[in-house]
Amino acid sequence: MNTRSLILPELLPLLEEFPTINLSPETLPASREELEQAAGQAFLQAEDYPVTLERLSIPGTDNASPISLLSVRPRKEATTPRPALLHIHGGGYLSGQPELTTPQLCQFAQDLDCVVFSPDYRLAPEHPFPAGIEDAYTTLCWITRNAETLGIDASRIGLTGESAGGGLAAGLALLTRDREGPTLLFQNLVYPMLDDRTITGQPDASPVGGEFVWTRVSNTFAWTCLLNPLAPGSADVSPYAAPARATDLSDLPPTYLSVGALDLFLDENLAYAQRLIHQGVSVELEIVPGACHIFDQTDTPVATRSIARRIDAMKRGFGL
How many domains does the chain have? Predict the structure, then answer.
């Protein structure tokens, strides 16, 4: 179904800037290079914000290489320890880096008066599950252990992420709960990638989702790389890899979830939000009409409004 007529007019330039490419072993290298260039350009925009950026290195899990972290801190002096926001970047589990959303991370640090940490976690297919989520958990524990040195309040840590980063954030919330790890105040998920079973076709799936930017073909390739040697849709997929697989969603932190009405992940996001609500988790859900994947990565009114709602939810999560 052709859905271009359903896209908000202000988002149409996004379709030209990020033409839809079905990811494969042949197209992945070029896609990674393009995102790396975009990350470099985004990083330069930090000079527009009153924040300090720093690249840190922390020990990896077991014999893994050290994990690189991007930290973003308000320049103004703090009179008390600041809250911390752990951000997980997107990229389909296959690409991307923390610098890709530098302007948003700077805005978060500024508007929330918090310190943002974003790990450069290991990517598939070179490092399939559980490499990425273990890097995220290692980062969370390191932040907590070093809270005093970092000038943060270990009892005030929030979690956020977009796309695959949103899926990793949701998986991290489950893993942290089950390992009785650090307490999280909230999970702020933006069009999270939650369910490997989406690739096999869903009953009553939205006919308008996934034509642009992130397609069903790319989704199939990404899940295949992440879950290797398991096949997407098989019975033994871990809920820490695909959070929609979790049967117990109780005792998770309050959740904010935002997704575009034309996003491939709409159905799995709605189902996850409903199950969270049914298991006693506080949920705020935003469905953005006329929006496709990564709509918030644009300089448009709809993106500005959505990011403002996202920040407002995190303010409430931090008790600001």
Answer: 1
Per-residue pLDDT of 17-53, as tens digits, reads 888 889 999 999 999 998 999 899 999 988 889 999 9
Is pTM beyond 0.85? Reply is yes
Is 70 in a helix, a strand, or coil? strand
Catalytic residue numbers read: 163, 263, 293
| 82: its two tokens | 């600041």
Q: What is the DSSP code (8-state) at residue 153? A: E
Q: What is the pLDDT of residues 97-136, one digit of tens each?
A: 999 999 999 999 999 999 999 999 999 999 999 999 999 9
CB 106 within 8 A of CB 51: yes
Query: To 10 degrees, the CA torsion angle through 45, 51, 55, 57?
Result: -150
The domain spanning residue 274 has which CATH number? 3.40.50.1820
Q: Which residue segment(s) compose the domain that 66 sits in?
A: 4-314
pLDDT tier for residue 202 given thresholds of 50, 70 and 90: low
* C-alpha distances in Å from residue 191, one per residue of 23, 84, 162, 301: 19, 22, 6, 18
* 320 domain residue, yes or no: no
How many CA atoms lie less than 13 Å away from 210 in the CB half-sphere? Answer: 20
